[in-house]
Design goal:
Blueprint lengths: L2 H41 L4 H16 L2 H11 L9 H26 L3 H9 L4 H31 L11 H13 L2 H34 L1
Amino acid sequence: MTYFEFLNEHGITLLLGTVTTVKVLVCSMILYVIISMIFGLMRLSKNLVIQGIATVYIEFFRGTSLLVQLFWAYYVLPFFGISLEAFTAGVVALGLNFGAYGAEIVRAGILAIHKGQREAAESIGLKPDRVMNLVILPQARRVIIPPLTSQYLNLTKNSSLAIAIGYMDLVATLGGISLNQTGREMETMVLVLLIYLCISLSISSLMNWYNYRVKLVDR
C-alpha cells in the first residue's frame, strides 16, 4: 500500500483527527493567554492574599506533571461532583498548566520596565490601573509576547497527551484506529509526525509575523 492509497482509504480519519487536535489547541491557547495575564498581574499585587493565591497556583501547576493534571481533571474531579468530558478536561488541564508558566512570563515582562516609568505616570495624576494599561503593558508586551507565544509550540506538542484520557485527537484516530486497522506503522507515524510539524510551523510563522508587526507599531 502506497502513501497515496493509505491517504485515500483513511483520509476521513486523518481529517477528523486533525480537526479535533486543532480544536483542543485553539481553546487551550485562549485559556492559556487569559490565565497568564490574570495570574501574572495577581502575582504582582500588593495584596498578600491575592499574591499568595497566584503563587500557590503557579508553583502547584509548574511543580506537578501535566499528565497527572489531565488524570485529575478527567478521573478525580467527578468524585467532587465535577464531571468533565475528555475535550473539556484536556482544555482545562492544558490551559492551567501552561498558564502557570505564562503568568511568570507576564510578571517578568512587567518587572523589566523601569520603575521610573510608573513613577512618571503617577506624578501626572494617572491612577494605577491607567498606568498599567497605558504605560506599563504597552512597553512590556515586546518582552512578554515572544516567550508567551513560543509556549504555543510546547502546548501543541503536549496536547497529544490528551490521548491518555480518551480524547480522540490525531494520535488517537490516525495513530490508533488507522494503525490497528492496517498495521502500517510507518505510514501512520510519519503522517502524524508531519501533521504536528505542519501545525507547529504554521504557529511559528504566525508568531514571527505578529512579532514583526508589533515592532513596526512600537517604532
